[in-house]
Design brief:
By secondary structure, the protein is mainly alpha-helical. It has five helices and no strands. Helix 3 runs antiparallel to helix 4 and helix 4 packs antiparallel against helix 5.
C-alpha cells in the first residue's frame, strides 16, 4: 500500500525540481496556510454557530473531506482508509490544540512536524 503511494508520488514528479523546495512547501507553507484557514477562520465561525464541542468534530470532518482528494490520489479505493482515519485524527488533534492554547500556531507547528516526518519517511523508505 505505501509502495503504491510512493510510486504515485514518484510518478507525479513533485520531487523532480528540488527536494528542499518541495519539503519547504509541504512542511511549512501548506501546514501554516491550512491551519490559518481551518483553525483560524473556519473553526471560529463554527464555534459561533455550533458551540465549542461540536465545532471540533465538524471542523475535523470538513478537514478530512478536503484532504480526501489527496488521499484518493495517493491511495485509491479501500487502501486509503487508514490514511483518511489518520487525517481525521490529525484534524481532531489540531482542532483541540487550537482550542486548548487559544492560538493557531500550536496546530500549525504540529501539522508541519507531521508533514515533515511523513515526507522524510516516504522519501527515505521508498524513493531513495
Amino acid at each position: 500500500m505505501l509502495q503504491a503511494c510512493a510510486q504515485r508520488l514518484r510518478d507525479s514528479q513533485a520531487l523532480r525540481y528540488d527536494f528542499w523546495l518541495f519539503f519547504l512547501f509541504v512542511a511549512v507553507v501548506l501546514p501554516v496556510g491550512e491551519e490559518m484557514y481551518w483553525r483560524g477562520g473556519l473553526q471560529g465561525l463554527l464555534e459561533q454557530r455550533y458551540g465549542p464541542g461540536r465545532k471540533v468534530a465538524l471542523s475535523s470532518l470538513l478537514f478530512t473531506a478536503y484532504h480526501c482528494t489527496t488521499v484518493s490520489y495517493l491511495m485509491p479505493s479501500v487502501a486509503g482508509v487508514p490514511l483518511v482515519a489518520s487525517v481525521f485524527c490529525g484534524g481532531l488533534l489540531f482542532a483541540w490544540l487550537t482550542r486548548r492554547t487559544g492560538n493557531v500556531w500550536a496546530a500549525a507547528i504540529c501539522h508541519g512536524l507531521g508533514a515533515w516526518g511523513a515526507t522524510i519517511w516516504l522519501v527515505w523508505k521508498f524513493l531513495r
